[in-house]
């Protein structure tokens, strides 16, 4: 299932799960397994430092998470550009935190893993829902603008360029679950 939100829709951060929540431990059925979520963000973005140059681009994302035998998730969000260059952000364990570019949260909620991040007036939520036997998964990616923000500003983690996101939709969300550590350890 895929929900689509345009930046023009104002969503409070609480709706995307960016408020503290009681962290649940990783269920035994997920321990020793990895989930991989992929999707495309179709963006219209304006480069702040390039005279306001605007472009519409598909931006592929991959979110990988390994659930250790000790019950801790290890997560990596990877984004690619049109030249095939990539950059990643990583997170270990559940809970909430703050980075220089916004709030971050990684929580188990029932049979779902919910990863939320805020950045420059916007937010992204990745929800991975597992079947009862933890043998398959589905993904839902939601994007939104903070209700108090007039625009979304972010830094491209591949090029390190500042951008204003004028509009964005998501498409093609998929999820796969496998035994073992997706990071190869």
Number of domains: 1
CATH topology, by name, is Lipocalin
Poorly predicted sequence stretches spanning 5 or more consecutive residues: 1-23
- The DSSP helix count reads 0
Shape: elongated
Strand order in the largest sheet: 4-3-2-1-11-10
Q: Report helical residue fraction.
A: under 10%
Q: Given the helix and strand composition, which structural class is it?
A: mainly beta
CATH architecture: Beta Barrel
| Mean pLDDT score | 81
Molecular structure report:
- The chain is mainly β and 185 residues long.
- The chain has one domain (13-179): Lipocalin, CATH 2.40.128.
- Helix content is 0%, strand content 57%.
- The protein contains no helices and eleven strands.
- β8 and β9 (137-145) form a beta hairpin.
- It starts with 32 loop residues before the first strand and ends in a 6-residue tail after the last strand.
């Amino acid at each position: 299932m895929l929900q689509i939100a345009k930046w023009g829709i104002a969503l409070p951060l609480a709706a995307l799960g960016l408020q503290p929540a009681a962290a649940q431990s990783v269920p035994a059925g997920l321990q020793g397994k990895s989930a991989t979520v992929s999707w495309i963000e179709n963006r219209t973005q304006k480069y702040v430092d390039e005279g306001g140059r605007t472009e519409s681009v598909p931006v592929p994302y991959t979110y990988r998470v390994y659930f250790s035998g000790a019950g801790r998730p290890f997560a990596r969000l990877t984004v690619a550009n049109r030249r095939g260059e990539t950059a990643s952000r990583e997170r270990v364990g559940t809970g909430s935190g703050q980075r220089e570019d916004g709030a971050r949260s990684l929580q188990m909620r029932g049979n779902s893993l919910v990863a939320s991040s805020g950045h420059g007036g916007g937010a992204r939520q990745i929800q991975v829902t597992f079947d009862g036997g933890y043998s398959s998964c589905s993904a839902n990616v939601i994007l939104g603008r903070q209700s108090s923000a007039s625009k979304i500003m972010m830094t491209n983690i591949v090029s390190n360029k500042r951008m204003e996101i004028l509009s964005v939709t998501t498409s093609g969300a998929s999820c796969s679950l496998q035994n073992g550590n997706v990071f190869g350890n």
